[in-house]
Sequence to fold (348 residues):
Amino acid sequence: MNMFSYERVAEFHGHSCPGLAIGYRMTVAGLEALGVERAGDEELVAIVENDACGVDAVQYLAGCTFGKGNLVFHDYGKPVYTFVNRRSGRAVRVLGHRRGFPEDLRGEREASTEWLLTAPPEQVVSCQHVEVEPPALARLHSSGYCAACGERVMETRLREVNGRHLCIPCAEAR
Amino acid sequence: MNMFSYERVAEFHGHSCPGLAIGYRMTVAGLEALGVERAGDEELVAIVENDACGVDAVQYLAGCTFGKGNLVFHDYGKPVYTFVNRRSGRAVRVLGHRRGFPEDLRGEREASTEWLLTAPPEQVVSCQHVEVEPPALARLHSSGYCAACGERVMETRLREVNGRHLCIPCAEAR
Fold:
């Protein structure tokens, strides 16, 4: 099975659903429009305008993952992903939709998923090249220790409380 | 190759690194302590206290993903993941560390990764059963359309501007 198949994406997400299917089509379209492959590091960035199922297709297929810092979330509730290639400076905005979606499939989860996966690209996505400033690279910070619980904490997240440096949970518990 | 092998996690993340290795050990320890398997839906929730590389191990191994809504991020900068099983109500807090980490491996990326992957569990993780209120389930909302750009928007993200309902980017552009 191809690493980039929908089946592998569904395995990662945990199940198949219409939201994942449209995210799959949007991500494939975005990568194709930029002519790029999956990001091993942070060379590709995705700015996603929702946090629904489809974002797992972005993570899996484009390699823009929460843990790598090249997945940026804007809480706009819109079916939009913007992919930015740091190397070329090119960016593409992908809007997901369902033009000509058959009304009788509404509420039919499996049939809707199948339609979204197989419809011609122009019925499910619109791509537009855009100019976007690439978000800053993920930064590494040194660590310190919380004076209350003793646990390790990223330096920038320590809070000073009465002259002691505490982690946020310990600071808030005071 | 086992879906749950470190190699598969590294393939998802895009590369192998010490941060991913400790996230791998922490996630395996958390799932074992709860006696649960990967989440197909939202039955398992992860509350992560940092957004570093290791969270990709949580997503891949535990099935607690950004797109599924069962990955909760608290920006505390701490090496802590708390896994909550909605079915049993049980929760485990996993703290990652490096007890007895050989000083001569400091700065040696590959050797550090190998040490983190193979050290006995007590040297890299501490698990503690805790009581945690499970976060709310992800909610679905209906959609409307932005009166300016015409694009689809989740209802709860429409903003009223001079009597018209706009998406956040259009509202902010005014």
